[in-house]
Amino acid sequence: MEKSLNELINDTKKSLSLKKYDEALISLNLIIKKDAENLSALSTIGDINVYRGKFIEAIEIFDKIIQINPKLSFIYNNKGFCLLKILKYAESILSFQKAIQYKPDFAEAYNNLGLAFKNVEKNLEAKKSFLDAIKYKKNFFQAYNNLSTIALEENNLEDATKYAKSSIEINQKNIEAYNNLGLIFKKKGDFESSLINFNKVLEINSKYLPTLINIAKNYEELNDNDKALEYLKKTHSIDPDNINSLSSLIYLKLKICDWHNLGNLKKRLFYLCDKFETKKMQPYYSLLLKDDLKLQKIIAEKWAKDYLYKKRNREFKKNNNQNIKVGYFSSDFEKHAVASLLKDLFRNHDKNKFELYGFNLSKKFLKNSINKDIIKNFKEFIDCNSKTDEEIRNICNILKIDIAVDLNGHTYGGRPAIFKNKCAPIQINYLGYAGTMGDKSYDYIVADKFVIPKNSEKDYLEKIIFIPNSFFPNSLENKNIESGLTKKDFFLPDDKFIYCCFNNIVKINENILNIWSKILHSTKNSILWLSITKGTLQHKNILKEFNNRNIDSSKIFFSEKIEYQKYLERFQLADLFLDTYPYGGHTTSIEALSSGLPVLTLKGEAFQSRVSASLLKNLDLDELITLNEEDYINLAIKLYKDNKKIKSFKIKLTNQKKLSNIFNNKIYTKNLEKAYFEAQDRFVNQKKIDNIYLE
User: Fold this and answer.
1) Which member of 63, 99, 230, 346 lies 3.0 to 4.6 Å from 76 by CB, making a disulfide possible if both were Cys?
2) Distance CA 41, CA 51 (A)
3) Residues 6+ apart with CB under 8 A from 94
4) CA separation for the pair 288, 281 (Å, rounded)
């Protein structure tokens, strides 16, 4: 006997109370057959689809309801939520606005509207929506959380703290607010207070992934890699597919030379990046893991989230400055490769034609602790760590900056958000990040025709400034470096062929170690000299890895960090520098070559794997550029056996240093200035942005 409408409604209620959703759906569909416009039944079907993550099916149901009754605010809100989940942000905004139109005091809809605006980087509109949510619902702690998160992203730590504390006053078990406070204190460099707040989160929810990851990163900054690894392993065990946890774990394992299961972790990481639009990987990691330009571009674009570029960019008028005003943005003006490479560039800039402005993003080194020889080249040098992105953009506007140069990009300490809404008419990606930023707000990237060959130009969103010779600046000059150092000073044997690599430890991976091990197996009277501190986790792990490849620890030598001049002189004690792959030496390669040490490199397709090769080509040392692993190994072995060849390379290198322009910073600076003039001319005269070729 067919059940009545009331019986079906009662069956539905019973099934829902028992969470038997399949049975509930059977009853609900029977109700719809009897009453096609039963809004309660349709709404419940939509809600079940939302619960099960079937957002497209839910939207179809909500649209049916809207056709029946177009004034139900909660249906528009539910539909907007589903659209948010499937990344249709513009449509979700319209849906939430409809909900508010029919219910002007709908706090939840305002909060959701704020989230939608935030996802398309309309932060002003997002903040207004969250504040409206609070206006209509005083105890709306989630809206306070969202305000705190936006303020934190904009580096407005005062507002971020205020909103997080307001949220906690309403809800003492508000883990998101405590997590934000932990991040705020971390930004201030107060790791003790940061950990106190993170631990409050774990007291409430011991498996809250964002906080576990943040704690790991705190310990990493404190150089407690054991603790960092412990927390990242825990996060990975909780959710193996959390991409932030997974990529952080992979990076830390590279940093400490722990390659156990690394291959499987990397495969999973790239699978998730490819499969899911919402899973985004920090672009710098991709440079370390793969020599794949197309993949790097995809990853950078996803990270940059460039949804509304045309509407987002500011309109600029010609500044009418007497000189071109160039703003250099960096967190690395002190005790970093960037500072050592660029100090002569800053000095050699023509101050009659250019005004330089330094925007210091470092939280560790403020203006008063940065080398005065660098500071004196800037008309103004501004500490920006405590300033919001908008405050920095306003400063640029007041100063009338013509060209903003990002020396960080997607590396540690960088703040690409400053460039998102255009802090200057011309924005340039330079030196710090060896790849595309994936964001059209950057107009140019500085390169040369070797690091970005013709067939690779399509893989960069920026147009390219092609510097003659090598794009890579330095302040090393072409003079011969005199040294009184001896092998005994570093406990090196006098009777061995010395291979060395002083690249950043994170560039050393399991594949390059396999290659080096094959070289060491075939060269019995050789050693490998690395820049790793003894007694560290890295030291222990790298020896273990060599041992796994049957390389005796007596063939591996280590050196501590030393004063920079002696570090340069130290290269002269080695016979051949072995470059890493896929991320080759950049600063270390120019330092080795400057010191007179030949560099053997494996050239790839991506920017980060071609810098050493570009330098070698400009020194007429193409013979040291290899195209595959086999050639790299064979040449390393051949040079071990041919002492005359090594000596001839060193002599040739000494001579070529005098002939090549890559150590002539005055010429380099003139070329870069020509590019700045050309970029400025194109902007002022409204010409199309295109590649800049300098001869």
Assistant:
1) 99
2) 15
3) none
4) 12
**Which of 213, 160, 220, 203 minimizes the C-alpha distance to 185?**
160
Q: Which long-range contacts (CB under 8 A, 24 or more apart) does 485-493 make?
A: 485/566, 485/569, 485/570, 485/572, 485/573, 486/573, 487/573, 490/529, 490/557, 490/559, 490/570, 490/573, 491/557, 492/527, 492/529, 492/557, 492/573, 493/527
Q: How far is CA 34 from CA 2, 30, 40, 90, 528, in A?
A: 11, 6, 13, 36, 81
Q: In 239-370, where does DSSP find H-type helix? A: 243-255, 262-275, 283-289, 293-304, 309-312, 337-348
The CATH fold of domain 309-466: Rossmann fold (3.40.50)
User: Taking the chain, what is the end-to-end CA distance rounded to the nearest angstrom?
Assistant: 90
Q: What is the pLDDT of residue 21?
A: 82
146 Cβ partners below 8 Å, 6+ apart? 111, 114, 115, 118, 126, 130
Domain ranges of the chain: 309-466, 487-659
Q: Which strands form 625-626's sheet, in the order they lie side by side?
A: 556-558, 526-530, 497-501, 576-578, 599-602, 625-626
Residue 591's identity, in one-letter code, is E
pLDDT for 311 equals 39
Interatomic CA distance for residues 309 and 421, integer angstroms: 9
The sign of the torsion formed by the CA atoms of 95, 99, 105, 108 equals negative
Q: Name the packing angle between helices 73-85 and 107-119 (round to 10°).
A: 30
3-state secondary structure of 500: strand
* CATH number 3.40.50.2000 is the correct assignment for the domain at 487-659: yes
Mean pLDDT by 10 residues, the chain (695 residues): 74 79 83 85 88 93 94 96 94 97 97 94 93 97 97 93 97 96 94 96 96 96 94 96 96 95 95 89 96 96 65 61 95 91 97 97 92 96 93 96 97 93 96 96 97 97 97 89 88 96 96 98 97 94 97 95 91 97 97 97 98 97 98 98 95 92 96 98 94 93
Do the beta carbons of residue 86 and residue 56 sit within 8 Å? yes
Contact in structure between 127 and 153 (CB atoms under 8 Å): no
Cβ neighbours of residue 246 under 8 Å, at least 6 residues apart?
Answer: 236, 240, 265, 268, 269, 272
DSSP helix/strand/coil, 465? strand
Structure tokens of 67?
A: 């056709």
Comparing CA positions, the residue from 573, 600, 601, 560 lying closest to residue 481 is 573
Fold match flag (309-466 vs 487-659): yes
